[in-house]
Each structure stands twice: as C-alpha cells, then as structure tokens.
Amino acid sequence: MTPTTLTAQPFPEGFLWGGATAANQLEGAWNVDGKGPSIQDVMPHGIMTPPTDEPTPDNLKLEGIDFYHRYRDDIALFAEMGFTVFRFSIAWSRIFPQGDETEPNEAGLAFYDRVLDECEKHGMEPLVTISHYETPLHLAKAYDGWTNRELIGCYERYARTLFERYGQRVKYWLTFNEINSVLHAPLMSGGIWTPKKQLTKTQLYQAIHNELVASASATKIAREVAPQAKIGCMILAMPTYPLTPDPDDVWAARLAEHDSYAFGDIHVRGAYPGYYLRKLREEGIELEITDADREVLTNTVDFVSFSYYMSVCETADPAKRIVGEGNLLGGAKNPTLPVSEWGWAIDPVGLRIVLNDFWERWQLPLFIVENGLGAADVLTEIDGVPTVDDGYRTAYLREHLVQVREAIADGVDLLGYTWWGPIDLVSASTAQLSKRYGFIYVDRNDDGSGTLERYRKKSFYDYQEIIASNGACL
C-alpha cells in the first residue's frame, strides 16, 4: 500500500476531537488576581528578538484575547463544535507568581477550577499542559531558567500542587510543551535568560537534562497523588527527509531526527540512548547527572503527544542547504511541497509518516495535540453574518485528517486530535494575531485595536461536521 492509497476505515469509537491552546497566547490578564510576570510578558515580538527587562504596553500577550474573562463563552463555542477534549495550559506564574514560593496563589488555582467546571459542564475531557513556554520571569532572571538545578524542585512543587488540586478532575496531562524546542529557542522553551549566542553547549544540555529529570519526577508524583491520571510527554515532530538519495544525505537526515527522537526515547525508555551519549562525548559536553537523576528518569510516560505542522529536508552538502522560512528546528526547504503564507511546508502525508514512525519506535498510545494552519484571514459578511470564507483551512484540515485515518488503519494507536488554535490567538513565534489559526475569528489586530468580539468562520461548521460524523465525512 502506498501513502496515496486511501481507505474508508472509520475513526475508532471514543476518539477524542478538540482543540489546543496555551495560557500565554490567549488568557491575557497578565497581572490580575496575583499573577506574576512570565518570560512571555517580556517577549513582545516573539522568539526572534531579545527580551525586554519588563512587560511592555505593546505586547499583545498582555491582553491576549481576554480568555481569562471570556472563558465560559469560548468553551461554549468549542462545545458547539462538538469538542470532546480541550487542551489548555496552566500559567505557572498564576499559581506561583515568582516560581519559587512555598505556598501557591489561591486565586490562580480557583481560576482553573472554573475552567474545569466549564469543561465538565459541556462533557469535555481536559488535556492539561503543566508548562507551556511560560517560565515565571523571576526563575529566568534570578536562576537563568533550566540551566539551574534549583528549578527541578520549583517545578516539582508546582506539579504536585496541580495534581493535588485537579488530579481527580483531569485524566490527561503533559509535562512540558514541545520540550525538544529548547535546542533552538532556549528562552521561550527553557526560560534561559543567557542570550542564545552566549550560551555554551554544556549549559544548554544541562538545562535539557534538568527538564527531563523534572518531567520524570512529575510523572512519579502523579503516580502517588493521582494514580488514575495518564501522563504524556510532548515533542515537536518534524519529519526530516534526505534532500537526495545520497547516503550522506540520508545519514544527515537521521542525525537531525535523533535530536528529537532523544527526548521521546528518554521519556519512554527511561534512560539516555547510546547515540545521544555519543553526541555528548564527541562534543565535549560534560553534564552533572546523579544516580538519583538516573533513578528518577525510569518513571516513564503513559503516552506520547506531539505537534505537527511541517516536514523538512536535510543534506550533508552545505551548498544545497537552503533553510525554509519559519522552520523553528532548521532543515532544508523541500522543493516538492507548497508552503503557507508564513513559509511552512504543507505536507499531510508527513503526518502519517510521523504517526507510523513514533508508533513503531515507542509502541505507546499517541496523541496529536497540535496541528493547524496560520493564515491572514479576512473578515467578511455572508448573508449579513460576519464570517471568514476560509476554505483553505478546511482543505488543510481534511487533507491531514485523511492521513490520520490512514495511520489508524496502519495500526497506530491514536487517542485523539486537537487542532492548534481553535480560536484566534497570539502567535508564539511572531507575537502576531494576524497569523490566524482559529475556527473562530477574534476581532483584534496586531496594533491592539479591535473589539475582541468572536465570529464563527466557515471552517467552524466544517470541523463541526467532521466531529459529528467521527470523521466519516472525510
């Protein structure tokens, strides 16, 4: 069977359909009810520019789309689409404003109680990310983020607080968002205040080790506090194809994929893989790894979740290595694929490849927790009703879900699918709202103007139909 041979096999009964968000991109209310500042509050222009020392008024994330005050209405819109799962993150600095306190902020905890109330009201399974690119600013500036082992204890206290408070209400948890992205975005992903160009490899890989230990420790805590919970890791999936059949290109692609595989291998197998240890040796990276760390790492996950937006190519020939625009993890541009308005390769078959690859490698249930298309939508009117005629988004959605269906037919055990940004929110990479992902249009512009009113796009009804038919209409 080739990747273009399609089957009509349905999605499994109980498959979870929904959408995914992050606190720092939609909540707003950055200093309300005792919340402290996070690294996102000093990154007004996304990951490509240096941070400011303090939050700036032109930072869209400070207000987001005001989910903090509109969550009931927004979750009701998700329910109208038929969501059976809603992925959201908890803002660490809402619970521990500085990050290193011993007692949590009750007002922050109460907010997420209310969010869970709405999920339960609408029969939606919550999927909660503990840390989604939102390290408390104090931990970044005072400790240099995850380069410092002290953050392990801070994170353990935070995770235990969440499990004790919500462990009976939340079945699915993710420890860190796209944990492998720290390799390329050390501030956003690892809260590392040292500028990227000044960061040594030893500092970076020690930060990675510290995060991995913290992640495994959170799994251990969950087993004690909320044994019925399912704990997953979350990685940024970006399949890497050799640019040519040259064996050197094939190996270059393999080495690039090792950088992401390692994070999954450690979460699933509980130890560092040989290829990773070789990399550390050959690059002269000496880490502080204790016997206690090695023991903690044996607390492995229940499932593997991932984001998927694009694929890339790789080559051993520097002259041919033309990096595609917008590719966070690098890689050469694939000349055979179309790209989005932001330069991301559109590759539905790549999603099937990832699903088969991860399933064969780890033999654990998988969960697609991000997939989506950012586009410059235009609000218009159809029959007097404000909307967006976004057939391009529906086409992207359907083409990717067809490949998901194929992967399930291939034998992949898949828990569910959450579209990234079911409602327009602020882009993490560019801090724009004009890069819209949602099925719901939010009237807000990059200059901060707009009413924040919500409007259903045409894709809202298309996803509603897909969910209602459990994918049978694809």
TrEMBL record:
Keywords: Glycosidase, Hydrolase. The keyword Hydrolase applies. It comes from the Bacteria. GO terms for biological process: carbohydrate catabolic process. Signal peptide: none annotated. GO terms for molecular function: beta-glucosidase activity. The active site is at residue 370. The keyword DNA repair does not apply. GO terms for cellular component: cytosol. Pfam families: Glyco_hydro_1. PANTHER family: 6-PHOSPHO-BETA-GLUCOSIDASE ASCB-RELATED, GLYCOSYL HYDROLASE. Belongs to the glycosyl hydrolase 1 family. This is Glycoside hydrolase family 1 protein. It comes from Brooklawnia propionicigenes.
